[in-house]
Write a structure and sequence with these properties.
29% strand; alpha+beta; 11-stranded mixed sheet; 3-stranded antiparallel sheet; 2 domains; Aminopeptidase
Length: 326
């Protein structure tokens, strides 16, 4: 029998150690990550699943829709069950049963779960996806992300399109352009105002304030890295990279000063973040979702964005949200 226990602060070390040793855990599943949020921002309702004294799985979550919906993630990019590799299939069904029983006893009306795409797993395993479907979960929504499958080769950028390679060569021949891999908090104050302008073009705002980025950087000094492209010393492009786990680095933010668009700084920074990701042993670079969020149908692809990402040998990976109406 599986026991479901709500998270308590005393579980923090046990929780984070489990995530770090799991098959599919990411930076976004860590309690250390959730700690950057103000206490009153979300009504967190994280769950731990035990068989006797053995911790089997974790589920970071929060209550939404006036406390009637258990949603995972909330305040993070990816959620869903955090699982070990060696767990037998039937235990996945038992976990889902335990979650459904707990949700009904709590009076929840809905469950939403968004797992990280399979590229984040150390070993491919979709037992939990099948168990959820078998137990009556359907899909609430799908997103398409794009990721670059990395190979430890000396010149990976040879996999880029001819256009991307040509722009990179132009950048590398321009003595006024340079790429800076920033140290500490260096560069964020230059990066962020341009990011704000980029987001405003699409009537959007960054997920994080500048203060929150500083906070996250202090919590994860090695896992959050900033790369800037400079023209005559001025920051004109860049990427904030999250090392989500040993398998995947994520371009969480890209920015471009459009005054210098014709210099193609994003092409140059993409080469550098790919090379950095290969150097630290990642298997993928996730470049993020590719939807036209302004469209009435939220699944509408952002075709020009997808075409841009494909120049860097990126291919689509599905990020789906499971739903159960209780």
């Amino acid at each position: 029998m599986i026991e479901v226990r709500p998270y308590a602060p005393s579980n923090r070390d046990e929780w984070d150690n489990f995530v770090l040793q799991s098959n599919n855990g990411t930076i976004f599943h860590l309690q250390r990550f959730f700690s950057y949020h103000p206490d009153t921002r979300f009504e967190f309702h994280h769950l731990l699943f035990y068989s006797g004294s053995r911790l089997l799985a974790l589920l970071p979550a929060a209550l939404t829709e006036n406390g009637t919906c258990l949603e995972s993630p909330m305040g993070a990019s990816y959620g869903g069950f955090v699982l070990p590799w060696e767990m037998k299939y039937v235990l996945n069904e038992h976990l889902v049963d335990a979650l459904l029983d707990y949700a009904q006893r709590q009076g929840f009306k809905k469950i939403l779960l968004t797992h990280a795409p399979p590229i984040y797993q150390t070993r491919l395993c979709q037992d939990i996806d099948y168990a959820l479907a078998f137990k009556g979960f359907d899909f609430d929504r799908h997103y398409i992300s794009h990721a670059i499958h990395l190979e430890p080769r000396e010149n990976f950028s040879s996999q880029f399109s001819a256009t991307a390679r040509r722009y990179i060569h132009q950048c590398e021949r321009n003595s006024d352009l340079s790429v800076q891999h920033c140290e500490g908090n260096e560069g964020f104050d230059e990066f962020y105002p341009i990011l704000l302008d980029n987001k405003a073009r699409h009537n959007a705002k960054p997920t994080h304030s500048l203060d929150e980025l500083y906070r996250l950087k202090s919590l994860f000094p090695d896992a959050i890295q900033l790369f800037l492209v400079r023209y005559k010393g001025k920051a004109i492009g860049g990427s904030v990279m999250f090392l989500c786990n040993p398998n995947v680095s994520l371009c969480f933010y890209n920015m471009l000063d459009y005054e210098f668009e014709k210099l193609h700084p994003i092409h140059l920074v993409m080469k550098h973040v790919v090379e950095w990701s290969i150097k630290i042993g990642c298997r993928y670079v996730d470049i993020g979702v590719s939807q036209n969020v302004q469209h009435e149908n939220q699944m509408t692809p952002a075709y020009s964005l997808i075409e841009f990402k494909e120049k860097f040998a990126a291919k689509g990976v599905l990020r789906s949200t499971f739903r159960k109406i209780l």
